[in-house]
Amino acid sequence: MSQNQIPALADLVSGARIVALPLRTKFRGLEEREVLLFEGPNGWAEWSPFVEYPDEEAAVWLAAAIDFAHGNLPTLYRDRIAVNATLPAVAPEHIERVLSNFGEFATVKIKVAEAGQNIGDDIARIRRVLELYPDSKIRLDANGGFEISEAVDLINQLKSLGINIEYFEQPVASIAEMAELKLQVNRLGIKIAADESVRKVSDPLAVAQANAADILILKAAPLGGIVRALEIAAEAELPVVVSSALDSSVGLSMGAYLAAAIPNLDFDCGLATSALLAGDVTREPLRAENGFIDVRRVEVDKSKLEIFSAQDHRQDWWLERLERVYKLL
Ligand SMILES: O=C(O)CCC(=O)C1=CC=C[C@@H](O)[C@@H]1C(=O)O
Ligand SMILES: [Mg+2]
After folding, report:
1. Count of C-beta atoms within a 10 Å radius of residue 311
2. So what's the ipTM on this one?
């Protein structure tokens, strides 16, 4: 993005709308998702680095949002994106209710390795999903929460139950552990996908160069925007899955554009997460229908902004964060 495409800070601040969207089910320990929205010549964009993220990381998310609102848009190869349902680490009795919000789907991503739970809890969750949706493809996401031995244990237990998984996302934390685990489990037919090893490291290509992943998870905001994410996909020469950052429909629209701009998209994308929200910022949310979301911009609705408007002290917090982070661009 050229400097003249970056809006003035005063314009960003005066146009910023900050909302706290309630979640239907706790996800990542959150019950509410705070996001800041602003409008540019291309339409609405979302800046929503998680509140604990340091300013340097939040600046990458801001560059992505500004690019989506003000920058050049990529060539698109498709107008709808196949998406997976995303299941938080809930107890088996809640699964039916949570997944019912996703409509039809072919793939479920199941969160595992939640703090305070054990592999037995993960297995019970996975088995319940397959009991309810026997034909669905299953993928797992541990957010780096396992030791290598625990990930191998879970994989072996699933094997002995005859349960196949499409891939295992970020089972372990470091790139070295990912590489070691991948060596051990590829021969069992298990694929490893990298998420945090792409978006939370200084070099998003390091995991691919270390041959530590079969698939890359790409999230537009943490990678600095659609253009950068497309470069990473092209340079890594690995299949990619575009995923959300638990955004409002505005943030999801950036993910949908990124997914639409990837020449070869072989897996369902993690962009159905508006189903995890109990409220959104538009009258026409990007909700999955029959397993797909549309590729389109989202119009923000004034009355929704009012209903979900963040409390005054949270508005101040976000605007101060914006002023600090803008200076890092
Ligand atoms: O990939 C998906 O199915 C949905 C997105 C998703 O899982 C995530 C969104 C936001 C924060 C992350 O903890 C989480 C992830 O780890 O992929
Ligand atoms: Mg993940």
Report:
1. 11
2. 0.96
